[in-house]
Write a structure and sequence with these properties.
single chain, alpha+beta, PH-domain like, 8-stranded mixed β-sheet, 5 helices, 39% strand
């Protein structure tokens, strides 16, 4: 499997508009079992998710996000969403959520639905991160 930087370079993708996503529950949004990885590109209107091993390249319009709520589980920050009529749960690394791409992703989703439980996001990305992870 390619690494993230090589994927972006090979596809001419700006890394400030790209991230690695781990899907916990893809519902009918993305195929694959829980904990399937995708390289994702953020466009003006959507996320383009690619998993070369599964031969999947799927576009998810931001307008299809109906609900989005942060939650911390197993020491990871998850975004639990309703996309269309399906559950869709994914995470990024702590570094990923704090990156320009992570912030752009949140901005784009929040144009269509409220991002709930920002407290979990702030705890996970804040200075006292390790205290919250051991609670």
């Amino acid at each position: 499997m390619k690494n993230f930087e090589k994927f972006c370079q090979d596809n001419g993708i700006d890394t400030s508009k790209a991230f690695n996503m781990i899907v916990g529950n893809g519902g009918s949004v993305l195929p694959g079992r829980g904990f399937t990885g995708y390289f994702c590109e953020i466009t003006d209107d959507s996320i383009i998710c690619t998993n070369e091993k599964l031969e999947v390249k799927k576009e998810i319009p931001f307008s299809s996000f109906k609900e989005a709520e942060f939650g911390i589980g197993n020491g990871t920050l998850w975004l639990q969403c309703i996309v269309g009529s399906s559950q869709f749960v994914f995470n990024l690394s702590r570094k990923g959520w704090k990156s320009p791409a992570g912030k752009l992703l949140m901005d784009k989703i929040s144009e269509h639905t409220e991002l709930k439980d920002m407290k979990a996001y702030e705890q996970y990305t804040g200075k006292l991160f390790f205290i919250y992870m051991w609670k």
